[in-house]
Amino acid sequence: MEQTLSPSQLARAIGVSESSLKRWVDEGALQASRTVGGHRRIAIQEAVRFIRAIGASLVQPDALGLSTLRELPPDWSRREDMSGTLYEALEAGHHARSTAMIHGLYLQGWSPAAIFDGPVRDAMTKLGTLWLHAEWGIVVEHRATNIAIQAISQLRMLLPSTTASSPMAIGCAIDKDPYLLPSLMASAVVADQGFCDVNLGPLTPLSVLKNAERAYQPRLVWIAASVSEDRDALIADLCKYGRELRERNCELLVGGRAVEDVPAAAVPEMTLCRSMAQLADVAKGILRKLPPVDQDTDDRLGEATGCDSDE
Questions:
Q1: Spatial contact of 164 and 305, defined as CB atoms under 8 Å apart
Q2: Any residues with CB less than 8 A from the CB of 100 and at least 6 apart, and which?
Q3: In angstroms, rounded to a whole number, what is the distance separating the alpha carbons of residues 15 and 299?
Q4: Where does 160-295 show beta strands of DSSP type E?
Q5: What is the pLDDT of residue 1?
């Protein structure tokens, strides 16, 4: 996938004239940079933002490097059962169609949180029961999980770019928790809200997370807890860690099956997120409370973080 597009490429992608594209750039509706030779270039993330903002249809997805969208039937976006459609693609092991659905929903204006809470969660939950009926169901589920991981990782390339001054967020799945998808989805959700994120993945001991947190100094820490051998001990450890984080002006957000029935009032030291939508809302609230950073400060931070507008 190209990192930047010419006005003619984007015009072909959405079926408008190049002159219309250039007018939108000149009016400030669409951001573009210029090459040394004076030619306009549009970042892929900005192109996607613009497509979502105006509700444009992709006439030639290949022009954006999204050729997998050709796998979708013409009427796919009008179907009511998106979860069922994604399930069918994942269950069949259809990598291109599954990826196209996830990316297509985002281009149509769905947030990552809505995609994950809806079609992805519904499809993966159903796939997770197939092994009860036949051992082959394990093959189907693992294959589907791998497809979903790749599709979501590729989706990250379409999300808005962060800058050097973007606040940090770091997270993982807890020790003994082997599931990759929950923390991967959480990282995409916080990135979509404007955080520069670091996902440590599954099977991460709390001590490792703490070391990484002290190094990155985030404003948000997320933990996915799908399984736990000793939930009471886990809750106690997380409450203690939540108190420590608040002393450093950082919030702890926890979600997953291992804590889904824990009353929020019982753990005021952290925020329990029952959905990706709630995670997005809390992340957005944290951002609102942060002071704005001027451009000079943003430039000085360029070498201090892994996030910048050129990524």
A1: yes
A2: 66, 68, 69, 70, 71, 72
A3: 37
A4: 168-173, 196-199, 220-224, 251-255, 271-272
A5: 61
In the chain the first and final C-alpha atoms are separated, in Å, by 13
pLDDT given at position 301: 47
DSSP, collapsed to helix, strand or coil, labels residue 251 as strand
Are 119 and 38 within one domain?
no
pLDDT at 309 over 60: no
Q: What is the mean pLDDT of residues 42-63?
A: 93
Residue type for position 152: I
Higher pLDDT, 62 or 192: 192
Which residue, among 278, 173, 259, 187, has the nearest Cα to 223 in the 3D structure? 173
For 182, other C-beta atoms within 10 Å of its C-beta total: 24
Position with higher pLDDT, 286 vs 306: 286
As a 3-state breakdown, the chain gives helix, strand, coil percent values, each rounded to 5, of: 55, 10, 35
Angle subtended by helix axes 136-155 and 82-91, to nearest 10: 120
Beta pairing class for 168-173 and 196-199? parallel
The closest of 308, 209, 208, 207 to 253, measured between CA atoms, is 209
Q: pLDDT band for position 311 (50/70/90)? A: very low
CA 227 – CA 205 distance, rounded (Å): 13
| Residue at a domain's end among 139, 158, 177 | 158
d(CA 42, CA 311): 14
CATH code of residue 235: 3.40.50.280
Structure tokens at 138: 């394990």
Q: How far is residue 31's CA from residue 39's CA, in Å, rounded to a whole number? A: 13
* pTM of this structure: 0.91
- Asked if residue 288 and residue 186 are part of one domain, the reply reads yes
